[in-house]
Design a protein that fits this description.
The complex is a heterotrimer of chains A (291), B (401) and C (235). In chain B, 42% of the residues lie in helices and 16% in strands. With 401 residues, chain B is of the alpha/beta class. Mean pLDDT of chain B is 89; it is low at 16-27. In chain C, a hairpin with a 2-residue loop joins strand 4 (57-62) and strand 5. Chain C is built from 10 helices and 10 strands. In chain C, the strands form 2 sheets. Chain C has a 6-stranded mixed sheet with strand order 6-7-8-3-9-10, with helices on both faces. Chain A: Belongs to the binding-protein-dependent transport system permease family. LivHM subfamily.
Chain lengths: 291, 401, 235
C-alpha cells in the first residue's frame, strides 16, 4: 500500500506541473484560437529566471513566485504584440509554425548565452518530510502538488467569473459578438498571452527544483502540456487540470507496474486511447446548439 | 601550317607544362607540414547539446598549443589548430573530410564524443590520417584495430565496468544487493553490457531498472529497488539524471544507499541538485579532480586567464583530457626526430612511453599515456572519486584489471 | 448635432465592391429604413458603419466625430450599437452573463441597468440563468437587442431583426423597437419586409447593387411603390 502511495504522490507531483503547463496553453488557445508551441520555452525561461532569483542573486524564494509570472507574462504579451499581431490575418498554419520556431529560437538563445547542461535550483522547503502510513511526502512535493493545483483552480475561477475572463470567453465563443460588447480584439489577445505567459512562468518556477533548468525542459513541458490539454478537451480549463493529473499519475503507475521503459510512450498511448474513445476529450466544454 | 596552328600548339604545350609543374612539386611535402607550421585538425560540438564536450575540447587543446608554441613549438615549427564545429554524425563526417581533403591536416583529433567518432570511423581508417580519439567510448571507432587510430584517456568499457563495481567494496562496505539504474540511450547501454557481463561472471546478484534520456522521475525504479532490498545502486547516465534519481531516492526515504556513478555523471554540477552529496562515488578519467591539488589549481588558473572568465561547471573532465592529449600529440611529433612523414609519425606515436605534459613543461592533469604497435589505448587507469564536503576528490587510482 | 452622417462609403471584398459611394443621414429621433433586395449591400453597409467590416473609402460622422478608422469595439464604446443579422451571441453564456458582458462597452458612460432590459423583455428575466444557446429564435433576437441596449447606445443599428421569426413574435418585436425609437434613440433598420419597414421607419433609403437607388420619406416610398421598382430593376 505504501508503495502505491509513493507512486501516486510522485505522479500527482508531475501531474500538477503538467496541469499548470496545460492550463496556460489552453487559456491562449481558448481566447485566440492559436496553439502556442513556444509555451514550453516560456516555462523554461520562467525556470531560468527562478535560477537567477534563487541561486544567482540569492533573493528570498517567495520573490521568484511573485516576480517571475508577471515578468514572463509581459514577455509573452510583447511577443504577441511584435510577432503575432502582424500575422493575425495570416492563416492558422503560419501562426502555429511561427510559434514553433519562436520556441526553438528562445531555447537556442538560452543555450548560447548559458552554455551548460543543467542549472540546479533548490526547493523552496527543505524541512523534514511528512510520513503518512509509510508514505514519505517531502514539504517540497506537498507544496508543488497543493500550490500548483490551488493556483490552477484559482485561474479557472478567474476565467469563469472574472471580468477579464469573461472577455476572453466571449472572444473564444464569438469574435464579432465580443467586439459588439466592447471587447477589443487586440487587448483581449494581448491579455490572453499575458495570462498564458504568466502561467508558463509559474509552471517554470514550480518545475525548476523538480527537473532543473535545461533546454530539454522546454520540450518536456510543451509535450506534456499539449497531451494533457488534448486529453482534457483542449478548450476546457478544468479538463486541462484533470488531464494533467491523469497524465502524471498514469505515467507513474505505468512505469511502476508495467515497465520503467514504458514511461515516455504511455503519454502518447493515453492520448491515442482518449482520442479513439472520445475525440472531443474527456472533459469537453458544454457545447450548446449553435446560435 | 598556318599561323593560328602554331599558336594553338604553343598554347597546348604551355598548358601541359603548367599542369606537370603542379603535379610534380620541387620538394615533397607531407600534408599539413610547412617550413613554419604543422596543422592539426579537430572536430567537436561548440553549440547544441554536446557543446559541454566539444567546447572544453577546443579550449583545452588551444591552451596546450599556446604553451607549446610559446616555448618555440615542435621541430622548429608552430602547431596550428583548425577546429571545426560538428554535432551530428553527418556534420562530423563532413568536417573530417574537409580537414583531411581541403586543409590537409597532419593529424586529426576527434573531440566529439562517441557520436562524431562513430561517424568518422570508417573514413579515417580508409584514408589513414593519424587520428586521436579523445572522448569516444564507442566500439565503432575502437574495433577493428587500425594502425592510424589512437585512443586516449577514456578507457574501454571492459575496463571501466570492473572499476565501477570495485567501488561498492571500498572501505569495507559489503553490498547486500546491487541495483543498476541505466539510461536506455546508446552511451549507458554500452557500459551496461560490460557491467552485466562482469556481474554475471562474478556471480553477483543484481536488479536492473532503466530510464529514458533526460528522465526526471525515478519513483517507479526506486520503488522497485526498495521492494528488492537494494542497498547499493550503480547509475549509468548523465549527472542530471543521476542527480535527480538520488534526490528523489532521499525524498522517498531511501537513505543509507551506496551510490556509484558512471564517469559521465561525475561532475561538480551534480552537487547542487542533490544538496548534501557527500559519500557518492564514481570514476574520473584523470588523476585529480579540479581543485583537489596544486597542479589542477594551477591548470584552472591558466585556463581562466586564457578564457577571461570560467564558464559554469568548468574546468571539467574534457578540458583536462584535451590539454593532456595535445601534449601527447606534440611528443609523438617530436619523437619522429623531425622527419615529418606520416609513417615516422605513426611509428613514433606507437612507441610513446608515459607521454604527458610534464615532459614538455606542461601540467600533468591527465594520466600519462603509453602505446605499442599492437595496442593503441594510451591509458587504462581511472581515478576512484568520492564527494567530501561537497567537493569531488580522487581517493585512489583504479589500475588495469 | 446629426447622429449619423455617412458619405462616400465604399466596402469591398477583394476586387468586388459590395457598397459603392453610399451616403445616408439619420437625424435625431428618427428611424431610417435601409431597404433593398438580397445582395444589395445592406448588411455590408451597416457592418462597415459599426466597424465589423473594413471600409475602402468614405467618412462616418457620429455626432460630428469621424469614426471611420475605429475598430468595432471602439465604435460601440462611443455609443453606436449594432444588432447583427446573425445575432452573434455566446452559446455558453447565460442570458444575464451576456448582458453583463455588454456593460463593458458602456464603461465611462452609464450602462443601462439590467432591470430596464428585463422590463422591455420580461421573457429574458424568466430565462436569466439559461444558456443563450438553448433559447428559441425569438428569445435569442430579444437577447441580441437587449445586449445592444445595455451598452446604452446613442444610435442603434438593427440588421433584419425579424428574419426567421414567427409572425406573432415579430409583431411584439416591432412594438418594442418603436418604444426604443420613441425613447429618443435614433434607429437605422435594415429590412426587406415592407410591412415592418412601414411600422417603424420615418424615412427610407434604398440600395441596389451597392449603390443608392432612391431616398425619401416612408410614406412617399409606399405611395410610389418605389420598393417594387428598386427590387425589380424598373428604373
Amino acid at each position: 500500500m505504501a508503495e502505491l502511495g509513493l507512486v501516486l504522490i510522485a505522479g500527482a507531483k508531475f501531474g500538477a506541473i503538467y496541469a499548470l503547463a496545460a492550463l496556460g496553453l489552453v487559456v491562449v488557445h481558448k481566447a485566440t484560437k492559436t496553439v502556442n508551441f513556444a509555451h514550453g520555452a516560456f516555462a523554461m525561461l520562467g525556470a531560468f529566471a527562478s535560477f537567477l532569483v534563487v541561486v544567482h542573486w540569492q533573493w528570498p524564494y517567495w520573490m521568484a513566485y511573485v516576480l517571475i509570472p508577471p515578468l514572463i507574462g509581459i514577455v509573452a504579451a510583447l511577443i504577441e504584440f511584435l510577432i503575432l499581431r502582424p500575422l493575425r490575418r495570416a492563416d492558422m498554419f503560419t501562426v502555429v509554425i511561427a510559434t514553433v520556431f519562436l520556441g526553438i529560437a528562445l531555447s537556442e538563445a538560452f543555450r548560447l548565452t548559458y552554455n551548460t547542461e543543467l542549472l540546479a535550483v533548490p526547493g523552496m522547503f527543505v524541512g523534514m518530510p511528512f510520513i503518512f502510513g509509510g508514505v514519505f511526502v517531502t514539504q517540497e512535493t506537498l507544496w508543488v502538488i497543493v500550490g500548483a493545483l490551488v493556483i490552477s483552480s484559482a485561474c479557472v475561477v478567474l476565467f469563469r467569473y472574472g471580468r477579464l475572463g469573461r472577455g476572453m470567453r466571449a472572444m473564444a465563443s464569438n469574435v464579432r459578438g465580443a467586439q459588439l460588447c466592447g471587447y477589443s480584439v487586440d487587448r483581449v489577445y494581448m491579455f490572453a498571452w499575458f495570462l498564458g505567459g504568466a502561467m508558463a512562468g509559474l509552471a517554470g518556477v514550480f518545475v525548476a527544483p523538480v527537473s532543473g533548468v535545461s533546454v530539454e525542459l522546454s520540450i518536456a513541458l510543451i509535450s506534456a502540456g499539449f497531451v494533457a490539454g488534448v486529453i482534457g478537451g483542449f478548450d476546457s480549463l478544468k479538463g486541462a487540470i484533470l488531464g494533467g493529473l491523469l497524465l502524471g499519475i498514469t505515467e507513474s503507475l505505468a512505469a511502476a507496474y508495467i515497465s520503467s521503459a514504458f514511461k515516455n510512450c504511455i503519454s502518447f498511448l493515453l492520448l491515442f486511447i482518449v482520442l479513439m474513445w472520445r475525440p472531443e476529450g474527456l472533459f469537453p466544454e458544454k457545447v450548446a446548439r449553435r446560435v | 601550317m598556318r599561323r593560328g596552328s602554331y599558336l594553338r600548339a604553343a598554347l597546348a604545350i604551355g598548358v601541359v607544362a603548367g599542369l606537370a609543374s603542379t603535379a610534380a612539386p620541387v620538394r615533397a611535402q607531407e600534408p599539413g607540414v610547412s617550413d613554419t607550421e604543422i596543422t592539426i585538425g579537430a572536430i567537436g560540438a561548440l553549440t547544441g547539446p554536446l557543446a559541454f564536450i566539444g567546447t572544453p575540447g577546443r579550449d583545452g587543446m588551444t591552451l596546450a598549443l599556446n604553451e607549446i608554441n610559446q616555448k618555440g613549438g615542435v621541430c622548429g615549427r608552430k602547431l596550428k589548430l583548425n577546429y571545426e564545429h560538428a554535432s551530428t554524425p553527418a556534420e562530423s563526417l563532413a568536417a573530417v573530410k574537409k580537414l583531411v581533403e581541403q586543409d590537409k591536416v597532419f593529424a586529426l583529433v576527434l573531440a566529439s564524443g562517441s557520436t562524431g567518432a562513430a561517424a568518422a570511423a570508417d573514413y579515417v581508417r580508409q584514408v589513414g590520417v593519424p587520428t586521436y580519439n579523445l572522448y569516444g567510448s564507442t566500439p565503432i571507432i575502437r574495433e577493428p584495430f587500425s594502425k592510424n587510430v589512437f585512443h586516449g584517456a577514456i578507457v574501454p568499457v571492459e575496463v571501466a565496468a570492473p572499476g565501477l563495481i570495485s567501488m561498492f567494496y571500498d572501505e569495507g562496505h559489503k553490498p547486500q544487493k546491487i541495483g543498476v539504474l541505466a539510461g536506455t540511450y546508446a552511451f549507458p547501454q554500452a557500459t551496461l553490457k560490460a557491467v552485466e557481463d562482469h556481474l554475471k561472471a562474478q556471480k553477483v546478484d543484481y536488479a536492473l531498472e532503466k530510464f529514458d534520456q533526460s528522465a526526471r522521475d525515478f519513483t517507479s525504479q526506486l520503488v522497485s529497488f526498495g521492494r528488492q532490498k537494494v542497498d547499493s545502486v550503480l547509475i549509468l547516465g548523465s549527472f542530471s539524471e543521476a542527480g535527480f534519481a538520488i534526490k528523489q531516492a532521499r525524498e522517498l526515504g531511501m537513505t543509507n544507499i551506496r551510490w556509484v556513478l558512471d564517469g559521465s555523471a561525475v561532475s561538480r554540477a551534480i552537487v547542487p541538485i542533490i544538496g548534501n552529496a557527500d559519500g557518492i562515488r564514481g570514476y574520473f578519467n584523470n588523476p585529480a579532480f579540479p581543485g583537489q591539488n596544486d597542479t589542477v589549481k594551477e591548470f584552472e588558473a591558466r585556463l581562466k586567464t586564457f578564457l577571461g572568465s570560467m564558464p559554469q561547471g568548468r574546468p571539467n573532465n574534457y578540458d583536462m583530457i584535451a590539454y593532456g592529449s595535445t601534449y601527447v600529440v606534440a611528443e609523438a611529433i617530436q619523437g619522429t626526430g623531425c622527419q615529418l612523414t606520416r609513417d615516422k609519425f605513426l611509428a613514433s606515436w606507437s612507441s610513446l612511453k608515459d607521454a604527458g605534459p610534464t615532459k614538455m613543461g606542461g601540467l600533468d592533469v591527465s594520466f600519462p599515456e603509453s602505446f605499442t604497435e599492437t595496442d593503441h589505448q594510451g591509458n587504462y587507469r581511472l581515478g576512484a572519486t568520492v564527494v567530501k564536503n561537497g567537493e569531488w576528490q580522487v581517493y585512489r587510482v583504479i589500475e588495469r584489471p | 448635432m446629426t447622429p449619423l452622417r455617412v458619405t462616400g462609403l465604399t466596402v469591398s471584398y477583394g476586387r468586388v465592391a459590395a457598397v459603392r459611394e453610399l451616403r445616408l443621414t439619420i437625424e435625431a429621433g428618427e428611424a431610417l429604413v435601409l431597404l433593398g433586395p438580397n445582395g444589395a449591400g445592406k448588411t455590408s453597409a451597416v457592418e462597415a458603419i459599426a466597424g465589423l467590416l473594413p471600409k475602402r473609402a468614405g467618412t462616418v460622422e457620429f455626432f460630428g466625430e469621424n469614426i471611420a478608422g475605429l475598430t468595432a469595439s471602439a465604435i460601440v464604446r462611443k455609443g453606436l450599437a449594432l444588432v447583427p443579422q446573425w445575432r452573434e451571441l455566446f452559446p455558453t453564456f447565460s442570458v444575464e452573463e451576456t448582458l453583463l458582458a455588454a456593460t463593458t462597452a458602456a464603461q465611462g458612460r452609464d450602462p443601462k441597468p439590467l432591470d430596464q432590459i428585463y422590463a422591455l423583455f420580461p421573457v429574458l428575466e424568466e430565462r436569466r440563468n439559461q444558456l443563450a444557446g438553448s433559447l428559441s429564435g425569438g428569445e435569442q433576437q430579444m437577447l441580441a437587442i437587449g445586449r445592444a441596449l445595455v451598452t446604452n447606445p446613442k444610435l442603434l443599428l438593427l440588421d433584419e431583426p425579424s428574419a426567421g421569426l414567427a409572425s406573432g413574435i415579430t409583431r411584439s418585436l416591432i412594438q418594442t423597437i418603436i418604444r426604443i425609437r420613441d425613447s429618443g434613440v435614433p434607429i437605422l433598420l435594415v429590412e426587406q419586409n415592407m410591412e415592418i419597414a412601414r411600422a417603424i421607419g420615418n424615412r427610407c433609403t434604398m440600395l441596389a447593387a451597392g449603390s443608392l437607388a432612391w431616398e425619401g420619406s416612408m410614406a412617399e416610398a409606399i405611395e410610389r411603390n418605389e420598393a417594387a421598382r428598386v427590387y425589380f430593376g424598373e428604373h
